[in-house]
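thread: overnight batch results

M.L. [08:02]
morning all. the overnight job finished for the chain we discussed friday. pasting input first so we're all looking at the same thing
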Amino acid sequence: MVLIARLHKFLTATVDEKSRSRTIFWLMLSLTFAAVYGVLGIAQAFSAEYVVQDDARQHVFWMMRFVDRQLFPNDFIANYFQSVAPAGYTTLYKIAATIGIHPLFFHKILPLFLGLISTYYCFGLCLEMLPVPLTGFIASLLLNQHMWMTDDLASTTPRAFIYPIFLGFLYYLSRSSLLPCLGTIALIGLFYPPYALVAAGILVLRLLIWENGRLRLSGDRTNYLFCSTGLGLIFLVMLPYALDKSEFGPTYTAAEAKQMGVFAADGRNAFFRPNPVDYWLTGRGSGMFPKSLFTPVTHCVGLFLPLLLLWRRSAFPLASRINSKIWLLLQLFLASFAMFLVAHATIFKLYQPGRYTAYSLRFIVVFISAIALTLIIDGVGNWASTTETKFKLKNLVALITMVIIAIAVVLYPCLVEKFPTVGYVEGKMPALYKFFQQQPQDIVIASIAPEADNLPTFSQRSVLVGKEYAVPYQKGYYSGFQQRASDLIRAQYTGDRAVLQNFINIYGIDFWMLDRNALTLKYVKDYGWIDDFDATPEAMLSLKQGKVPVLAQAMTSCAVFQNEILVVLETSCIAKLAGS
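M.L. [08:03]
and the structure it wrote out:
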């Protein structure tokens, strides 16, 4: 019984001046786990010569312009992704490139530091709600496991920054630290603008309080100071986005999007689903709840927190130490839910509705799960240590319960088949990448092959189109992308030499990359991502009629690179064939 009592006291001790060393111990332990997970992630990132995170192929490749201004000249795709990159995100990579850190290297090491910063703020914010260092450790551990079992953090795209910056905002807001809070608000707007609107919602909600069964305005002047200065700063930070007249805008309206196959239930960017449950609750982009909400599954413990709080207070003494600051989680939920509804009402103008609740709900689940696990540990420890009996069964049950919780929380990654699971992509064709690297920097490569997605990143050369870059939200970009893709498909499968030559001349194509079976009907039928383009039915009809594409002859006579999967053709040779 003495062992359980001491263990219970050690684990559930609250924060005070005398226990500062204990708080530092749990914080350092939290940062250690964050560092270990980060190193495991970096090990994957540097496991081969050609490795990149999946989404970084969109958002990072164009930043190699910071290293060499001659790269991607007049590149339609690179220009688009550069135009939509938030100012803070772009500036950070530019500064890194200026001091000699290559963008592709920077994107691989940055998650480690983002994870450590997120851990610090997660730990601190949790202690503001329940001043038990163990709770901060559990919350930070759950958060890190989530971040390294999904691809947000490792992508180092703008959404990766929401973890450290928004947690910092919540932390400083809970401590009423005005200047640091305003600093994080500015950073949110510079790195992930949608969540600046969520921050605005929280600041407004803090002006309201529930008192004597009624909703009233807060009498705390601090809330008004934070709200007025915060909203003013958000307005200034968001103003450039509101005034931006990008050549790639505007976004598609709801009516237009509903007519597009790419947004249909079976489309590449499925959004409009006929099942209301899928559309409003679980659908990617449109749904309120992300599918990774309970990743890892230990997050499910948070669902029991209301029951624990309704239980007898004597059974869970630490429940009385839960600070009123926990209501910040409710304010976060309400602000996010409001923006979720606004985003649905203004389809795509505020990007995907699901983005407004996804991260908020993950934060909420992390904190309530950590608090619930702490209360359970406190409950079983209190139950066993206060029982005056020589019968040791209760002590054994309490010890087993604590060990099971420790194993489930700490060792959960060992149960995952591959941890971290963060979506790194390995390029399998180094000879191909080196071949294109040896070509002039202003070449344009035409291809609908899957490998085209890797060429801008691994070869630093422009592709006309690629599945990875078919982002259908802004009309100015996607209509141009559709035109390019349709023209490419039409030219690839045409039997008319004039059509082929005209396409090469218009787009300045230098090389054509083909999968070896690309000119077959089966390839066109099975290769789903080109289904949405107007020229695909024409290509299928032509192949069904037995017409032989002009490129079939060039496959043998114009090849300048080939392997067992694909062939690269030189268009100057194709032009000679077309002319003859």
